[in-house]
Model the fold of this input.
Amino acid sequence: MSERQKSSNVVWHHAAIDRAMREKQNGHKSAVLWFTGLSGSGKSTLAHAVEERLYAAGSRTYVLDGDNIRHGLCGDLGFSDTDRVENIRRIGEVSKLFVEGGTIALTAFISPFRADRDRVRGLLAAGDFIEIYCKASLDVCEGRDVKGLYKKARAGEIKAFTGISSPYEEPLNAELVVDTGSQSLDESAELVMKLLRERGIASK
Done:
């Protein structure tokens, strides 16, 4: 975003109701669970499975899904490297708002570049950003090809497709690595819930 596009003459308004008050009312801490991985690695499926468990336990949650976000908030963006960076920047800012609102935000985005994920981590306080790497090989993801995207990418119909014609940079220090390529959904979801219990974000 260029300098001339930035807002000017704005002052941050401090609300009377703060994050700590909202967390107390909700009965749990807020955080961002950042699910990352190749297309077809199970990010959205796992994020929603974890949300169902958190919701059943009475937690305030919301899933920010990559496809859904591109229908609205990021509907003006394509898939160039520049647009991918802006896509994740916007999601990071939205995620931060959810955290301030006392909510557990679960994001499911390929987010292929480490620098972008680290930038979002830097927006949040220590411990608020939990990177969850949904690890599945390209062969496994391409074998699933739920949306038929890999087939189109191989045929040259989709340009700059992550894993085929655009790189995916694996997390180096993710809080959790889940082998979604071989583990069942229940096993994967339980690993996430175990981590959240350990961090005092989930109680059950």
Notes: The first helix runs from residue 19 to 26.
